[in-house]
Amino acid sequence: MNVISNDSIKCSQALSDLYNVYDPEIGLNVVDLGLIYQIDFDEEAKRIDAEMTLTTQFCPMGESITGNVTKSLTNNFPEWEVHVNLTFEPPWDYSKISPEGQEFLGR
Q1: Could you report the per-residue pLDDT of 56-99, keeping only the tens digit for each?
Q2: Which pTM was predicted?
Q3: CB neighbours of residue 62 within 10 Å
Q4: CB under 8 Å to 19, separation ≥6 — which residues?
Q5: pLDDT tens, 9-27?
């Protein structure tokens, strides 16, 4: 997991809750799957910009997953405006899965 952020402390706090957001088809959380690419915090505007991907552009659970990421960040930072940007660059692949995720998946 190599999430880029402009605030490592807030990012760690955000990621701790995102460990509870799962891809329901795979059964692994979005952090260990490597779906979260970047989380930036604008203190002045109280805005969070998160960039993430899905395992495939045609993921049938995509809306649910991104919605749950938004909900998790909003619950963790209730005074902040949350924006989740879905990207497919770079495309997701198995190398983005954490060692814990690899073990969970039996790889």
Answers
A1: 999 899 999 999 999 999 999 999 999 999 999 999 999 999 99
A2: 0.94
A3: 16
A4: 29, 31, 32
A5: 999 999 999 999 999 999 9
C-alpha 47/C-alpha 52 separation (Å) is 16
Measured in degrees and rounded to the nearest 5, phi and psi for residue 74 equal: -65, -40
Domains of the chain are: 4-104 (3.30.300.130)
* Upstream peptide bond of 24 is cis (omega within 30 degrees of 0): no
Sheet hosting strand 36-42, strand order edge to edge: 4-5, 36-42, 47-52, 81-86
Of 93, 105, 85, the closest CA to residue 4 belongs to 85
